[in-house]
């Protein structure tokens, strides 16, 4: 039994609705709400925050040797016979304080390079945020435009089904040949296939949005599609100054230079101080110092050779400095490239949007007239098919142009580091625009370490001026 075409249309729409309906309800969100959800619940971002925290505690642990250390030791012995004495028991308790005195100036260098290591990890985290939010916004707008495309393809399916119905009526009245029936039926099948394809693209983008939101099923809130406007303040120097990966490269270069200075002190003399007190011993003269006696020592070590270890380590750090300098230059060049490409893509997409908008208006009018003529029996079916195909093509191209505008704008914001905080932790305009200023929580000591580093730089600068 042949199924009527209007039923085919109903079945197609029902299947499409089932495909579009998730297993459980999705949460409809605005873009600011979605970005906040990412910063609060994205597991990769949370892992990055914890890595930064771990690096902070690593800094505190790495300079622990610079501080005095204390220890307590005790001993107890028993002998059945010692000389002329039987059953001899002896014991003691000793307290010790030790400190390596920095006479080569390596402590300050080691502290600075460890803090810079933390700063580099923080800048890399900022770059992770910059990349993730850019990817999230690009996916968001891709999903919005994909949903618009689904609506477009469904409208076209409805339109072609109606045209097929009219063709069937004309065929029953022997006004058109059977070939027209075959053609119109093929158009309905093709339109249904395009609906399914568009829905698959949209569902895949929703899955990507869910992944970045920590597994929460979300969808963009229904709203009128807006064409984006260019609202980015371009400044190449600012981009090179505040883009987080460039900032990380600058920090790594500075750290490499400090590591070289520290490594060059491999044969520096060391001075160790130790103080020991014996509060208890039995017998009283069991240990030296005796009970209630104290002792102190200073040990000076003057190394003469270490098998060229220091020499080759310095050569190693020198090459690392050269690598860091080259990496910084490469990032600066790629930043300029990224900005230029994003601007060019924006201009191309903006021009295409204007052109396609005019073409859509003309194509809609042409399709309206062609459909009217065909329904009145004054036009050929092939003209109708051509008009429908042209309208579908230009409408799809218009949506692609709008999407490309959003993508170019996101790429430009990412290229200038507009989705990441500044060095002092202040969020920039693009981030504040979404209300994300204080959503990434949990990191300890950020301000303290940065404040200490700035004070240290200022102190060194004054010292260099005096010298």
Topology diagram in text:
Elements: H1 5-20, E1 27-29, H2 31-41, H3 43-62, E2 69-82, E3 85-101, H4 106-172, H5 178-212, E4 218-220, H6 236-242, H7 244-263, E5 270-282, E6 293-301, H8 309-375, H9 381-415, H10 429-432, H11 446-466
Parallel strand pairs: 1-4
Antiparallel strand pairs: 2-3, 3-5, 5-6
Helix pairs in contact: 1-4, 1-5, 2-4, 3-4, 4-5, 4-7, 4-9, 4-11, 7-8, 8-9
Q: How would you describe this protein?
A:
The protein has eleven helices and six strands. The protein has one domain (13-64, 114-266, 310-462): Up-down Bundle (Outer membrane efflux proteins (OEP)). The strands form two sheets. It has a four-stranded antiparallel sheet, with no helix packed on it. Strands 1-4 form a two-stranded parallel sheet. The chain is elongated, with a radius of gyration of 37 Å. It is an alpha+beta fold and 467 residues long. The chain starts with a helix and ends with a helix. Helix 4 (106-172) runs antiparallel to helix 7 (244-263), helix 4 (106-172) packs across helix 11 (446-466) and helix 8 packs antiparallel against helix 9. The model is unreliable at 1-15, 17-23 and 436-448 (pLDDT under 50). It is 65% helix and 13% strand.
Features:
467 residues; alpha+beta; Outer membrane efflux proteins (OEP); four-stranded antiparallel β-sheet; 6 strands; 13% strand; elongated; disordered N terminus
């Amino acid at each position: 039994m042949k199924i009527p075409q209007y039923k085919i249309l109903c079945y197609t729409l029902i299947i499409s609705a089932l495909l579009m309906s998730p297993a459980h309800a999705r949460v409809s969100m605005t873009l600011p709400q979605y970005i906040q959800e990412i910063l609060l619940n994205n597991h990769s971002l949370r892992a990055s925050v914890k890595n930064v925290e771990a690096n902070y505690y690593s800094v505190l642990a790495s300079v622990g040797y610079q501080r005095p250390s204390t220890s307590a030791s005790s001993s107890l012995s028993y002998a059945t016979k010692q000389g002329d004495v039987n059953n001899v028991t002896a014991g003691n308790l000793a307290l010790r304080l030790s400190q390596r005195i920095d006479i080569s100036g390596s402590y300050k260098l080691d502290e600075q390079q460890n803090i810079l290591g933390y700063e580099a990890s923080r800048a890399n985290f900022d770059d992770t945020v910059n990349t993730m939010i850019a990817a999230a916004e690009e996916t968001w707008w891709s999903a919005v435009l994909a949903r618009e495309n689904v609506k477009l393809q469904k409208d076209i399916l409805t339109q072609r089904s109606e045209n097929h119905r009219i063709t069937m009526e004309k065929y029953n009245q022997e006004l058109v040949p059977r070939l027209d029936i075959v053609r119109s039926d093929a158009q309905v099948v093709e339109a249904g296939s395009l609906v399914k394809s568009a829905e698959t693209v949209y569902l895949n983008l929703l899955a990507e949005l869910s992944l970045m939101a920590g597994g929460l099923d979300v969808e963009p809130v229904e709203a009128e599609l807006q064409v984006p406007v260019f609202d980015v303040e371009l400044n190449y120097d600012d981009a090179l100054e505040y883009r987080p990966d460039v900032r990380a490269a600058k920090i790594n270069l500075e750290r490499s230079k400090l590591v070289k200075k520290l490594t060059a002190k491999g044969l520096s003399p060391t001075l160790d101080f130790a103080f020991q007190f014996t509060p208890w011993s039995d017998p009283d003269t069991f240990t030296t110092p005796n009970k209630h006696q104290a002792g102190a020592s200073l040990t000076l070590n003057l190394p003469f050779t270490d098998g060229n270890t220091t020499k080759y380590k310095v050569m190693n750090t020198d090459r690392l400095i050269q690598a860091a300098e080259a990496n910084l230059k490469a990032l600066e060049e790629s930043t300029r490239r990224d900005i230029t490409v994003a601007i060019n893509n924006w201009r191309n997409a903006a021009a295409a949007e204007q052109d396609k908008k005019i073409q859509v208006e003309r194509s809609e009018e042409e399709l309206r007239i062609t459909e009217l003529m065909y329904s009145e029996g004054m036009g050929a079916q092939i003209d109708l098919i051509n008009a429908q195909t042209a309208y579908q093509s230009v409408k799809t191209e218009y949506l692609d142009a709008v999407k490309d505008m959003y993508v170019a704008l996101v790429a430009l914001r990412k290229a200038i580091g507009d989705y990441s905080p500044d060095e002092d932790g202040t969020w920039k305009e693009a981030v504040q625009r979404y209300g994300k200023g204080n959503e990434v929580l949990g990191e300890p000591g950020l301000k303290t370490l940065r404040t200490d580093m700035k004070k240290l730089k200022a102190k060194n600068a004054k010292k260099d001026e005096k010298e």
